[in-house]
Amino acid sequence: MEISPAAWKQFATLPADDYARIRAKLDALANELTAAQPPPLPTPASVDARASIVEGFAVLYSVDAGRRRLTVLEVTKRLPQEE
User: Fold this and answer.
1) What percent of the chain has pLDDT over 90?
2) Most buried residue among 6, 19, 42, 44 by CB atoms closer than 10 A?
């Protein structure tokens, strides 16, 4: 898993326990994505952007199938849900 400079700056503003919980979930997701798929055949760059809610934070990340790499792009506090 890689973390972009912008995401590192956003992680730096989080309390340590929030960072640890988000990082653990993202590590598990990265392992799941790379372990579940066989290495792809060489093709032009195929990067897939995705978003997920992790521990009340919106996480934007990309998955590079060719490199079998998840890159965290942004992390932000999720807006409160209306009831």
Assistant:
1) 23
2) 19
